[in-house]
Write the structure tokens for this entry.
Amino acid sequence: MRRVIALTSAVCLALAVAACTGEPDADAPATPAPTSAAPAVLTMIRANSTCEHVGTTPAPVWVDDAGPGLPATQVRSAKGDVVAAIFGEPLRAAPRDDGRNNKILFIVGKPRNGEPLRVTATPAGGGAATTATQEANSGPGEIYPTIVDVPAPGCWHLDLSWAGNTDSMDLLYAP
């Protein structure tokens, strides 16, 4: 067993050294250079009730106030005043059987003023709404760590309201 580990370690070291030295392989795919230290924010729209991604934009500066360690998948709201950092990716219709939950960290760009966030989720094709409320009792920054469970998979339209502000976004829930 030690011989296998030693051999594996030697091969890995040789590959690492080879990758860092010599001329680049002309047939190797180019590695894109990072464009920003800030994570990209996925912008989504309601397009034929499919929750299509429309591209990426840099995260707004106020997202940095939420602290480090945000997941890479983030969704920006329609007006741009809310970013949803998706910790429970992929979001799944309830009940989840994988031991995880549908945690979404809503980061708002306008002050909470101590007021709760109200989330009303409606299936894009119509149907009964699901609601969630999260008190303004978390930090750092203007954040609302929330679990938003929905009863069926598909595209869900979320109406968000807090401290006299409103915005909306669409999120896709897998089966």
